[in-house]
Amino acid sequence: MRVAQREEGVSKHIRLHELHSNSDKGDGSVRYILSGEGAGSIFIIDETSGDIHAAKSLDRERKSQYVLHARAIDWRTNRSLEAESEFIIKVQDVNDNAPTFPDGPFSATVPEMSDIGTSVFQVTASDADDPTYGNSAKIVYSILEGQPYFSVDPKTGIIRTAMSNMDRETRNHYAVLIQAKDMAGSVGGLSGSTTVNITLTDVNDNPPKFSQKSYQLYVPELAPVGKAVGRIRANDEDEGQNAEMTYSISNADAAAIFSITTDAESREGIISLKQPLNYEKRKVHTLNIEASNTHPDSRFSHLGPFKDSTSLRVIVGDVDEPPVFSMDYYIMDVYENSPASTQVGTVTAVDPDSTNSAVRYFIENEEERPLYFTIGVNSGIIRTTQVLDREDTAWHNITVMAAEVDNPRMVSHVPVTIQVLDVNDNIPAISGGNEAVVVCESTKNGQVIQTIRAADLDNFANGKFSFYVPADHPANPNFTLKDNGDNTASIVSRRSEGFSQDRDQEFFSLVLVVADGGEPPLSSTATLSLRVCVCQRNTRGRNSNSVCQAQAFLSTAGLSTGAFVAILLCIVILLAIVMLFTQLRNKKASKEPLILSEEDIRENVVTYDDEGGGEEDTEAFDIAALRNPKASEPRRKYHTYLGCGPSLYGEEDEAEDDEEGIVVVRRRRKAQEVDYGNYSPESEPAWFVIDCIPREVSQSAPSLLLDGHDIIHQIIQQKVAQADSDARGPPYDSLQTYAYEGRGSLAGSVSSLGLTAAASELNYADLEDWEPKRQILERIVEQQPATSQASPDT
């Protein structure tokens, strides 16, 4: 194997190496072949001479060496003349890469006021050249910009401070330009540069300072206590924690009236009142305010104390103040039953201003409640307006107002509490004196039957009670009373043989007196009722009172007699409601249904062959619903029709007279049987109209001739179909009436149902005018039977 070294960056087609075989005699019979890395692309061999050339420029930083293989073969036989040989081409480095800072530019910080030589930052440059060959990759650092504040170590690239006492408040940012040069910094070396941005961080090297040595503040004397009245601020050139400060008042007299706190956000001192101001007592206050750093740095203590002070002159403003009471609240007392106008107490208020205005007093009563007290307008003396009762109201709370005479708007208030003192004005009484005392049959002589207590509406000072049997009453042979001395007394049995319901009476009585300890003492006489019965001892307590057996089950359940009666009453009411509900339900179920069975669900049409009672029938039904609306005109002339000529209705002729007396109409009813199965409205008309109708009558009729009975039939059938298909209707059949009389008659209806309810009575004086017409109609009627017999088919 052979090694050939060539410099990088050589030009193309430069001869790099020459291969020669011992079998090569120079006659061109030997052929050289090159294979391996870059053969044919980067490296080219002359097949005849064996010279190797570089077809491209070589770069060591991309590939530092190539391994190639060479063979010598015979041109004619392609047989190898020698064994294949291997050789390596190493690319020798040259200084063709400048130093670089891949991560630049950089940022760094250093505290202000740092000492000289304080390390700030380290930069490192890289060079792609071979560090083992020559000085191509040997780098030296230097500073181009940033002097004289900073320096850099030529070998390590560490940047250090070169000046002391660099002040952030003067300049806080520096841009340092660093250069890296290879070839150990010699001439001809390549170089690269980067920028390092250095920022000075803050340290607490500046004390707070007030911009003025003295300040002035105006505060009205009515400024509320605890509220801020002013603000003051000291400036600190530092930032963040180093600029935090606290404020304080150094003089004690001002610190007793004012307080100062620090606002962390605005770094201001907030001045507040600890006591109210009084212009009349002191018009000016001077405050010595001091501001000091919260976190001082001992390294800079030589720079002086990190605090500053100033003076604040507070001027108190005069304000018209309301009257001031001598006390914040008043507590007074008065005995009950005192007469009206009894003096309770006095309130006092004065004007604190220099004007010293007179004061007037009032009792506040915004709700307009009855007042039990009054106050002297000028004196402030509170008096009663009526007799007070402690047992009704023991305490009274009122509010007294004081207003200046010169300025009534200046009003102040004070609460006044008045206690009504007790006097012995209520007699004592026995607690539960209305209830009978139970005496068991098993009670023995000397046994305590029950302990009684007294009640008194007066307070405890008057409530020391004593019990005794009145001396003027004879001694009770059955019971005695023992005063226990603790406001209680015991009823004691005096019978040695005990009590019995069979032998003794059921009820006994005991007269006793209860007296209180008031001045003067009051007493009352009470008569206790005692009942003898067989008892059952209540097991809930050893000293519990006995109860009779009739009450045992109630007391065991914890129910009183009233509660038990109420429960029974509720049960009775519930039972009555249930019984009433049951009766109503049975009565409803017993009602006969409208439709008894499914077979009854059919059409039930009832036909009445009755034409009504005429004009005299006014009470059977309301005929107004059957009128033709088109024929309902005031004083209408009603017309009827008469069939002329032969008629199928030969039997039962009927005659009707018109109310107006205009025409007489004869109508015949059909007597023979008619086959309704073959009935046709066209073949058998229902009415016949005579030609003797006056013109004015025919003109007054609004309807037309009824010539289309089939149309009316169709309409009625349509209505029936609509009624049958209406799902909203009830399941049973319904009868619908249609007040329609047809449109086939020029003379109107022949029925008397068309008469109006308000028709005026007939004028019978006009009947004489109808006589000629009546005679004509009689002749026509007399001739009609003969005509009918002569033409039966008409």
Automatic annotation (TrEMBL):
Keyword Cell inner membrane: no
Cadherin domain segment(s): 21-101, 102-210, 211-325, 326-430, 439-553
Residues annotated as transmembrane: 552-581
Pfam families in alphabetical order: CADH_Y-type_LIR, Cadherin
GO cellular component labels: adherens junction; catenin complex
Keywords, sorted A to Z: Calcium, Cell adhesion, Cell membrane, Glycoprotein, Membrane, Metal-binding, Repeat, Signal, Transmembrane, Transmembrane helix
Compartmental location: Cell membrane
Gene Ontology BP term (one): adherens junction organization
GO MF term set: beta-catenin binding; cadherin binding; calcium ion binding
Domain of life assignment: Eukaryota
Membrane topology: Single-pass type I membrane protein
InterPro entries: Cadherin (IPR039808), Cadherin-like_dom (IPR002126), Cadherin-like_sf (IPR015919), Cadherin_CS (IPR020894), Cadherin_Y-type_LIR (IPR000233), Catenin-bd_sf (IPR027397)
Function comment: Cadherins are calcium-dependent cell adhesion proteins.
Descriptive protein name: Cadherin 18
Organism: Dicentrarchus labrax (European seabass)
